[in-house]
Amino acid sequence: MWIPTEHEKYGVVLASFRGTVQHGLPLEIGDTVQILEKCEGWYRGFVLKNPNAKGIFPCSYIHLKNAHIKNKGQFETVIPTEDSVITEMTSTLREWGSMWKQLYVRNEGDLFHRLWHVMNEILDLRRQVLVGHLTHDRMRDVKQHITARLDWGNEQLGLDLVPRREFSMVDPDEISVTELYRLMEHRHRKKETPVPASTHHLFVQVKSLMSSNLGEELDVFLYIYDGRESRALSERFFVRLNKNGLPKSPERQCTLFVDLGSSDLRKDVYIVAHIIRIGRMGAGEKKNQSTVQYRRPFGCAVVSIADLLTADCKDDHQLKVYACNTESEWYQIHDNIIRKVNSRYNLSGSNTGLSVSMQLLHGDMEQLRREYMVLFTRGVSVTKKLGFSDIIMPGEMRNDLYVTLERGEFEKGGKSVARNVEITVYALDIDGQILKGQVAAGAGEAGGDEYHSFVLYHNNSPRWSEQIKLPIPVDMFRGSHVRFEFRHCSTKDKGEKKLFGYSFVPLMQEDGRTLPDGTHELIIHKCEDNMFLQDCTRYLKLPFSKGNLPGNNQAVKGSKESFWITSFLCSTKLTQNGDMLDLLKWRGHPERITDSLSKLKEIDGSEIVKFLQDTLDTLFGILDESSQRYGLKVFDSLVHIINLLQDSKFQHFKPVMDTYIESHFAGALSYRDLIKVLKWYVDRIIDAEHQDHFQQVLKATEYIFKYIIQSRRLFSLATGGQHEDEFRCCMRELFYSIRFFLSQESKGSMPVAHTQAVFLRTFPAVYGELLKLFSVREVATFVHDTLGSLPTTPNPDCPLEAIKLQCIARTVESQLYTNPESRCILLPVVLRLLHAHMQEQRELVMCASILTSMLSLIKKEDTDATLSEEVDLIVEKLLGVLLTTILEITNRPQPSGNTLRLQFQDVTGEFVGCLLALLRQMSDKHYQKLLQRFTSKDDLRDFLLQIFTVFRILIRPEMFPKDWTVMRLVTNNVIITTVLYLSDALRKDFLNDKFDYKVWDSYFYLSVIFINQPCLQLETFSPSKRKKVLEKYGDMRVMMGCEIFSMWQNLGEHKLNFIPAMIGPFLEVTLVPQPDLRNVMIPIFHDMMDWEQRRSGNFKQVEAKLIDKLDSLMSEGKGDETYRELFNSIIPLFGPYPSLLKKIERETWRESGISLIATVTRLMERLLDYRDCMKLGEVDGKKIGCTVSLLNFYKTELNKEEMYIRYIHKLYDLHLKAQNYTEASYTLLLYDELLEWSERPLREFLNYPMQSEWQRKEYLHLTIIENFDRGKSWENGIILCRELADQYEAYYDYRNLSKMRMKEASLYDKIMDQQRLEPEFFRVGFYGKKFPFFLRNKEFVCRGHDYERLEAFQQRMLNEFPHAIAMQHANQPDQTIYQAEAQYLQIYAVTPIPDSQDVLQRDGVPDNIKSFYKVNHIWRFRYDRPFHKGTKDKENEFKSLWVERTTLTLVQSLPGISRWFEVEKRELVEVSPLENAIEVIENKNLQLRTLITQCQTRQMQNINPLTMCLNGVIDAAVNGGLARYQEAFFVKDYIVNHPEDGDKIGRLRELMFEQAHILEFGLAVHEKFVPQDMRPLHKKLVDQFHLMKSSLGIQEFPAYVRASPIHFTNGSPRTCRNSAPNIMCPPEGGRVVARRSPLTYPAVNRYSSSSLSSQASNEVSNITGQSESSDEVFNMQPSPSTSSLSSNHSASPNVTSSAPSSARGSPQLPDKHKHSRENACLSPRDRPCSAIYPNPLDPTQRMNAHQMGDSTLPRSEPNISAPDKVGSPAKNTRSQSPITTLRSPQKNSAPPFTPSPTECQPAGLVSNSPALSGSYSSGISSLSRCSVSEASGTEGPPTGPGSGPPDGNPPLLPPSTLLPNSASERGLDELGPRRDSKTPPPYSVFERSNPRRPMPLPHSLSVPPQVDPPALPPKPHQMRCAKPDVDPRRPPPIETPRPRVLPRKVSQL
Questions:
Q1: What does pTM read for this prediction?
Q2: What are the backbone dihedrals phi and psi of residue 482, each rounded to the nearest 5 degrees, phi first?
Q3: Helix axes 865-891 and 898-921, enclosed angle (nearest 10)
Q4: Fewer CB atoms < 10 Å away: N or C end of the chain?
């Protein structure tokens, strides 16, 4: 039986358990479990990280741990009783564990490894804590280290900041909100800015001296030197080096220069190293000359301390060592080096250098000992500062006398040369004994008995500047002296040192003063006997200094010999001040007391603090003896000493004075005098003219009161409490005087105010002292009355205002205020002052601090009645002003400086913390009282509006730092509690007749943003964090949602006020993925729809608001992390939820309701896709396509203009980012077309300033032109340049007109000069339900990037859709693929079908121009797939080889606003084997012509391509290529079975003959250019060609071939223009066809990268037996359309494409005018008017224009399905291509073409429909069929009304019928350029004709409607039946341009 456990509640898993038993719970080692029940060796419970999964597990697997239980029962929480730091470590490491693995997955290697190290370090520290063997201090350090590491990891992983106190986590419910804020702020600040240390230390280690000329020992002295003041800052550090330059004692090579102030860390402070060698006098002397060692100068090195500021690590510094040029300059060598006086020193050796390691350390010594323990364990010496440090610590013992041997003046002593003087220094005691070890060269070495100076060679005026240290004990100072012995060091007489004189100086004078600091000139007494100095009594009575000689001793005074020293005493016990000694010995000289007391103020502070206790005893001794006489003087002296201790240098002596007062002070009667004098001073403050002295007195108030209180306590103890009433009376009188003085208001220059401020600064320190003798209430009354006496009128300029607050702040923090008994007395006065300042918005930082301290004392759990009264009082006084202050602060602009901004944020946060603490403390009673206080409804309304606004501010994300989740949750808890209380006031006071929209709106707005704030979206939290939040606070969103619902229901008919305003906000709430919240909110939606329907009868407002809100939610990035969940929920919102749907279906307005749902759902699908795409990092086609889809939706379905324009600009930005400049231009044109050239003002919008419509349109034009230029779409840019130039011309803005014309010219130059790549086009099918809505089961054609081929494009698409599967075939997929829950991509290359055939067929148009029209403005694309129909003939596969040709029509032309557009229409036709053969041969003929022409015109660098092509064709033909066609199609069986193919067979035969003719000419050209080494190959080709001719049965070319030789541009023979050959029918019934020259067809090689091309090519190659690859025969070339090979004149070989005209009729030129070649080359503007008309057609060609009757052979057009071919001609208007007029093939004619951008194009140009051939493909037959009927003859004589006379000379057509569309439509007088016509835009000029699908054109560039609309194109049967007598005035038939919807105008955008 399962029994609930009592104590076994919590445990850790010892071993993993698989949970394979029934109800088993899988466990992993280390998991923590909570145990619920127990049964026979099994537990039942759950793992804490997943509390929802409960199960059983064995008891033996669990290690139990102690825990205590909260909320015992069903929802109990178990908390382990271990150390809270351990608990936090465990839970944090678990949380990090999962995130750490994710770092690896996300490839964040650096953080992954760093976190791994930190986790291991924390685990190590955890073990140490758990073992429990650490000392208390070590445990503290470990915990500090752990918490620092935990905080670092949390910060790196973006987790929450944990509030801690003493390393333990804090429960926010157990402390005040203000305290919580301070903890968070402290931790946040700790993270940000470390406090700079004020004390610094320099660690120095001397490592070695490197020099080439060593060999002697060296002394190195280092010290810190101030270059600005030319003085040493520290004593010297001494290191002795051995002969190798290494330290003799390695343990003494380090030192720490201590107590450097921040002012010492500057550039002109240096570390100086003096190096002295010990050895011979001269460095080069022989070794045996002398055995005596001398100390001699060696060198000096200097380094600036500023060099160390940048490097805190130990860096080795190599210091250059310099030597003096002359030894006499040695004393100032460091100054010369610093000042760079190069003439006085030089390098002591090229490679001499001192190696020193230096490191700058910060903090006090204790801190250093903890942090750098290694330094102190290896015997580092301490080198002290000269003098005391900036801060003198009490108890610091120091008694160091520093003596500097400055210089000497010596006589020669009878010698010819100057002396070598050495000084020996001794310290001797009172008995004349040498003091052992008291003479030190510096820190680092122990002191010696004597010191030897260095020797300067032959110098009678030596300057040493050598400092020594005499650390003589204080008790030995009296009677001691220092002796200096002078010796001459001879270099000859065995190196003896001969004594010749001495000097001495006593250390203390007879009156007890020590040797004064400064320079002393000592007398040199002559002495050559060492024994004389043994007895010091012989010379001590002699004078020692020239400065204090009696006047009569002139002999000694006149002596030339002198010795100068400088002394400096640094002692904490000895003084050099006589006045100090006089005061301390006042009893010996009573008459000097007044004088001594007066001089006390002049004594240096360091002297006073040395004798602080003695001085105080002296003062109170004098006061006790004669208080009447000296009372005022003693009081002033006491004030001086007290104020001295306020100085930062001596502030650490305050505890010394406190100790004195507590333990040593004995003035039991002093309190009377002190009170009396203090009151005397206070009473005279107001009348005094000078306030300085009074301010000094009041500054010392704290310690004066301490002395008063202690004195009274001593008196009471001694007398048993006598005179108590008298004492209290005196104190009351004193406070009365103080109150009177404080109550005075300042006038004039406010001297009294400053004095009041001084008192208020010290007053709070008195409270604690008063409490020693008075009760809490008495002291509180004193304080209340004193503070209450302050002037109430605030004066902003008065310094007293800030001091008042500081006084209040210290009062609130004092022990007095903490006591509830006194707090109730003090609170009113504190609140009064606070209220006054907050109302004036002054000193807010201090106000916040005071309020924080006050509210920190109020704990949430306190239920004391007095506490409740306090809260009530604070609410009454401060709540309103607190709300106002928060509003003021948050609305004012933030200051710019960093410090100011931090202060600004601090004060905001503190006030917010105060408000939250106050609101959390308020109970139901407090709220009732608060609401009752509002006497009028307006006041209540203002209060509610104010508090709701403040709450909205508190919810802002920027209110607290990102990781302050704890603080945010507390804030939200307080807000929702307060709102629940205040909502009653709304219902009660603002409903029905008293309804107030503003208050209710504010309430709803607050509720909505409360629910939507990120910190409450529990779904984004980790499971453990979510569990904690739910346990502590519940889901606050649901609570607020219920409150919204409740309040909404109360509104009644007032709901109408909130429709549609609240639709958006409530929708936002509904998108929160919380089911309970949605269930609450859905009825509100129905309610709103119902009320809207009642009011207006429709949902227009609801729909508009919903759409706007949905879009704004996307653009604002709402629900970034969970957007899919959020937005998926909108469809269920209107779908599966039965409550709403059922209600809608029951309503009368259900249809409009369902319509609304459908619209929103469609928008949601697009927005969802948009968000999905935008989430991706890089710009790709998916983002662009998605934006296009959304943009079109807003324009077409929603008609929301502003949204439409916004998304235009978003799309534009995407294109720019992707460098799709052409697409960017087209996109911006959408906005441009909505604008007109008007002066209408437009408002500021997006990034556009306020400007006129003309200016904005001009700016857009310029931007678009620039982007067209960058995208190499120069033709499009030219059109806009012209339109803009027209505008400039109209406004006479010639400056800009000039620029625009130059820009236009530059674009023309670029067209001709720069290379443009032709992109590939790819058809992409997106199949399957997993694709986004805008792609799903649709096919698109995409324009590839430059150089992008099929494989690269396919890879790019698979990268964009990584989950997609590439389909390996080109067949249309079936329904299973469409409905699959997957993504399928079908990609293959397609061939563009250009619309601009007239340009491409035009002779003489350069390739640079044609290349643009081939791949721009393309609507239609083609794809060919070869297949075999019927039985496949193994011998000749050509018989059954068919081609399936697919033509795709797009919704918009490419390029456009996107790189891809959807396929709108798909047409499928099959090409027969015969048609296929015709196309293949046509293609090869084209290729041959092109190569021959290029070779002739020397365009080829080498002849190899022509050679390969000739070889491929001839070799293939010989091996049976063309013969296969003969076998297949020329046999009798085929002709009988296919009578309808007679024309095609004839055509094939012509092409074969034509190919032979071209080959013959090609071989002739080849022979001319072939290099010598390829001659054998050429000969072989000629031989094979003859074989080929014979195999074809060609002996000689037929007449029609001979009459039409191949014409080339280089002057090859050409027939006369007017000669018409006599065409005869051959006897075998074949056709005699008049044809063009074989080279009249354009030639372009185009190789496609279709996935099917290789397979098809191989297949055909096998069939034909040719040796070429697919590139040779079936190589996707543009086919010539309607090629007529009997033309008398060849077309230009440069024409790149020739396509058939479609049913619209290709506009032809009339046969009226003849022009020279020069005229044809003129630009349209320069050409004469008649240049529009080309040469007349020759008679042979004229005839064909009218042979279009029913006898015309049917053309196998790929776009006609089989039934269409058989059916009536009228049915095939779109697909067939009968020719209405003919192109003239003459070179010098001007056939029609799409005009250059320089010509203004009227509407007629829009009507060009796409050609159906002349494109590129990827199948076998890559070119479309050629029409047999264009200019070829027909079998038999022509019949029908359109035929000409029998002689073959048909009548001329009227000129008007042959005019191009543009010319015919306008008439001849309009052919010139027109300024007033609007230029068609790039994408409208080439707009295709499709009457069935109107496509809107941009307004600004669209063609203006004509007065007479153009005629419709004639049907084929109408054309055939046309009468010959055509009205010459009638324009030719043309197609109607695609109708356009005129765009709406922009509403002021």
A1: 0.58
A2: -115, 135
A3: 140
A4: N
